[in-house]
Amino acid sequence: MPLYKTIKPHANTIIFVWNIKDSLAKLSENMPLSDNSIERLKHMRSELHRRGFLSVRHLLKTAGYTDFDLYYTPNGKPHLKDGKNISITHSYEFSAIIISDYEIGIDIEKNRSKITRIASKFTDYKVDFEEQTAEQIEKLTVIWGAKESLYKIYPYGGLTFRNDIKVTPFKLNDAKTTAWIKSTDWDKKYNIQFEKIENFTLVYAHDNFN
User: 0.70 exceeded by the pTM?
Assistant: First the structure.
């Protein structure tokens, strides 16, 4: 069973990480899906995306839920019918969910050098990100993951990563920082935690616990 890791950062919050090793056929076995999920799956052209989608359903099962417990708002934000907050992410061979009583968001990204080429589009830090060291790539990936996590928390959509979400400078060995959503209708600080998982970076944001 490719449940890779369970993280419990708080009594009322849990994270499950899945290593997507199984085939599409294997992931589909004994996995009942809602009509909406069946339609979504049909329209996914990439097998990688379909496997990621199904691995998330296995994570739901691990957490004691089914696909039928999950629904989405019109802007694509997932919710659980029992009122718990949930955030979902998958990238290549990893997927993760976070479930909490608090506002939360999660992102997992592969550490790739191409992020240095788009750094100016999502951050204005005065750092030489053209230097493609492993540390710079990982740090940029944390920044991107933090902003992606906050974007998932914000309920209305339409934020810009560069202008509306700010991340406090940090060191990688801190494993945490803070960030803000600042827009016309929202001005709120969040805690950010992150860790490296193989060649990926897992980042999650929350609003209340330390």
Answer: yes
